[in-house]
What we know:
Blueprint: H1 4-28, H2 34-55, H3 69-105
Amino acid sequence: xxxxxxxxxxxxxxxxxxxxxxxxxxxxxxxxxxxxxxxxxxxxxxxxxxxxxxxxxxxxxxxxxxxxxxxxxxxxxxxxxxxxxxxxxxxxxxxxxxxxxxxxxxxxxxx
Length: 111
C-alpha cells in the first residue's frame, strides 16, 4: 500500500463488498442460513472497525533521534511497511475465514 489513506479505502471496499454479498445472499438465495449471514455481517463490521483503528499507527521517533533525515526516513518507512504488512496479513486471514462462513451459509448444490 502506498499510504494510510489508500489502505483504509481498500479495507472499506473489501468489507463493503463482503457485506453486500451477505445481504444479497440473505434476500435472494433460497434455503440460505440467514442467522449465519447475520453473524457474518456483524463480523465484517467488527473487522472493518478494528482494522481501520489499527491503520492509525504512528512512528514514535522524531528526526532528532537520528544522525540524518535520510536515516530517519529509512527507519520510518521500514517501520510503516512492517506495520502495514502485519495489518494486511491479519485482515486477509480474517477475511478468508469470513468468506468460508459465507460459503457455508449457502445451500449445497444438488446434482
